[in-house]
UniProtKB/TrEMBL annotation:
Domain Thioredoxin: 9-161
Gene3D superfamilies: Glutaredoxin
GO MF terms held by the record: antioxidant activity; oxidoreductase activity
Family matches, as PANTHER family: OS07G0260300 PROTEIN (PTHR43640), THIOREDOXIN-DEPENDENT PEROXIREDOXIN (PTHR43640:SF1)
Protein name, per record: Thiol-disulfide oxidoreductase
Length: 185
């Protein structure tokens, strides 16, 4: 496992369209994922200890963001040949066990993750109502273990601000996680 940090937010970058299968049996696109006030695109996977450490907070925050008009979508792009725990069937189990209220999509070709420039799990891309990038930071101070319950909710607070103003905070702390497991070329 290689730990990786996300790059600095490139404010104003447009969201990239996609058409990917979800664990719910539907095909999802950027347009049918977006919310009235924006969209949170999350690159996650099933096996990553960084993702496991924040799963309950991720579900909580995405549910609360939905109330603010910010929808969320999670995408898994890991190479399942080398990481079978991240298979589509296992994605269905993870979505069900954790009560995902957002689509969990499978990027089998890894083209969407590459187009977004995703580097790790979790990697968060927060867009405003115009689908321009406003946040590329961490969920909170959690790493491989969950941070204390009273920790600052970086992602939630940033996206709450995006919902109200259309702009993300200037200061953002990078997310850290396992590197995306790319297939051999």
């Amino acid at each position: 496992m290689v730990s990786t940090e996300t790059p600095i937010c490139e404010f104003g970058q447009p969201a990239i369209d996609f058409s990917l299968p979800g664990t719910d049996g539907k095909i999802w696109t950027l347009d049918n994922c977006r919310g009235e006030n924006g969209l949170l695109v999350m690159f996650i996977c099933n096996h990553c200890p960084y993702v496991k450490a924040i799963m309950d907070r991720l579900v909580r925050d995405t549910n609360e963001l939905k109330q603010l008009g910010i929808n969320s979508v999670a995408i898994s792009a890991n190479d399942v040949a080398d990481y079978p725990e991240d298979s589509f069937d296992n994605m269905k189990l993870v979505a069900e066990q954790n009560g995902f209220s957002f689509p969990y999509l499978y990027d089998e070709t890894q083209e969407v993750a590459q187009a977004y420039g995703a580097v790790c799990t979790p990697d968060f891309f927060g867009y405003n109502q115009d689908l321009t990038l406003q946040y590329r930071g961490r969920l909170d101070a959690s790493r491989k273990e969950a941070a204390p319950a009273d920790v600052r909710r970086d992602l939630f607070e940033a996206m709450q601000h995006v919902a109200k103003t259309g702009h993300g905070p200037e200061q953002q702390i990078p997310s850290m996680g396992c590197s995306i497991k790319w297939r051999a070329a």
